[in-house]
């Protein structure tokens, strides 16, 4: 026998009664009643019952759950209340055996903590709740790409090994690169800005790296970021792109991923639109009214955002931040140079995205670098591009993993990342 299948389990239906099929899958349950064995077999598309009689029973003698079988059989009627049909096995081939006991229970009957599940992540994918999270993640990525492509953005890939800090700052992983010091990229910021010269609208979905010793449910050392940059757009324009992208993600998954929502035990509700917009000044007023003594120019700490998040539990923008709180490439407002053309997208207390209009005048950019204690000569390669006809442009970066936690209703980011990397976890 080979390994091939004629059908995925999800393709078989009660209309196929009498038809011969070849299926492959994992044993989820097996019950022996006299000379008959009832097998529950699952592949990534569905589950079915297989009836084994006679000498074929010998082939599965002593097999444990999660062993892999290939079954040739006929679709037949069933009396089982959980199934619309069953398959009568005519020939069985054992393709792989599973040990007993397994390190975690992939059926989720015995709850395992997140660390044990991460240590056996591949087996954890046999748990339908876990598998559903990553099927949803697949649909989210597909929806994001569709939205951006429809808005005439071009997907790019920028380097992850870079020769100098892309945004300044200390949270960089450094490595030896053939005798030189290199860094893992924190973001595609400078590259995506340069690409607006020729491609105008670009996006990237990729892993980036931050060497922060954070031990929270929302920080990772390696994270997936969705980044865009667009020529001839202001920050209000790219806020519109971001809002429509998130609305599409929720609409698509809410409508098309009913089975996944059922497995996770969470209903995806489409948020109301347009998202509320609060200026930094308005947020400061709300916080001071709540006895938080803050002055203009103070950064908003986690404790402050939790207070704001209680009043604004869904998606909302905080706009017009003080310029000094934002990176060197953010442009000031024309009517008030102490404010920036920038925004953060929040979900309650959780920051999901940050963006704004960029400086495109090279002289202003150099003076801003100096203001922030950065050396313009370190950014020489980047600054050169600004002499080649740099258009006005704006963009943002969105944390995909954080967005996933809002979609599936979980507050630990490790649940939505296959093999998370944090200060304590480098394996598997």
Regions with little confidence, pLDDT below 50 for 5+ residues: none
SSE ordering: EEEHEEHHHEEEEHEEHHEHHEEEHHEH
CATH superfamily of the largest domain: Bira Bifunctional Protein, Domain 2
State the distance separating the first and last CA atoms.
34 Å
- What is the average of the pLDDT values? 96
Total separate domains: 2
The biggest sheet amounts to: 8 strands, mixed
Helical residue percent band? 25-40%
Named CATH topology of the largest domain: BirA Bifunctional Protein, domain 2
Report the C-alpha radius of gyration, rounded: 27 Å
Beta-strand portion reads 25-35%
Description of the structure:
The two termini are 34 Å apart. The chain is α+β, with helices and mostly antiparallel strands and 428 residues long. The longest helix has 23 residues, at 128-150. It is built from twelve helices and 16 strands. It has an eight-stranded mixed β-sheet with strand order 6-10-11-16-15-14-13-12, with helices on both faces. Strands 1-2-3-5-4 form a five-stranded mixed barrel. A three-stranded antiparallel β-sheet has the order 7-9-8, with no helix packed on it. The protein folds into two domains: 9-96, Nucleic acid-binding proteins (OB fold (Dihydrolipoamide Acetyltransferase, E2P), Beta Barrel); 124-416, BirA Bifunctional Protein, domain 2. Helix 4 (128-150) packs across helix 6 (235-256) and helix 4 (128-150) packs across helix 7 (258-264). Helix content is 28%, strand content 26%.
